[in-house]
Amino acid sequence: MADGRLVIDSPWLLRFGTLGVYRRTVVVDPGSSSITFSTRLFGKTKRRIVSFSDISRLDYRFDETGENTGSAWLGSRDSTEWFTISIVMKTNQEEVMIGRFIGEGSVDYGWESILAGDDAIDFRGDQEERSLGLVKLLQAMLGLPLT
After folding, report:
1. Helix (H, G, I), strand (E, B) or coil at 48
2. Within 13 Å and on the Cβ side, how many CA atoms surround 68?
3. What is the pLDDT of residue 73?
4. pLDDT tens across 40-72, in order?
5. Can you tell me the distance from the alpha carbon of 33 to that of 48, in angstroms, rounded to the nearest whole number?
6. Pick from 96, 70, 80, 77: nearest CA to 8
7. CA separation for the pair 35, 25 (Å, rounded)
8. Host domain of residue 115
9. pTM value?
């Protein structure tokens, strides 16, 4: 946070992977009661400013997908999780994404999964904790309900 503003930027790996062609920045500014969404693509910047008063609520969503561990008879035994934080506009219920946290999920299927080739210890990412921290901060800054 700088000057009371919250700045959310594209991950450095995404910016590096696109050779600087793509960058998305979200600035939550309680001083001006607005959120600025800036997207730069191929040197052109598209900017959208949303007033806090135009937002009806925050949306916090969890999705998960199975990953194939290579076992034909056990199927998917691991997962990738993503947590998406969006604002929902009052007028048309449009969802505008603030950010998405993606990481490895943890699924325990016991010994049969290990014997089929899955890891004995199933690691998981910190995407749930990081996204929950951000959504709580946004909720405090915006004074909005969470759905």
Report:
1. strand
2. 4
3. 53
4. 999 899 999 999 999 999 999 998 876 655 555
5. 14
6. 96
7. 10
8. 6-142
9. 0.76
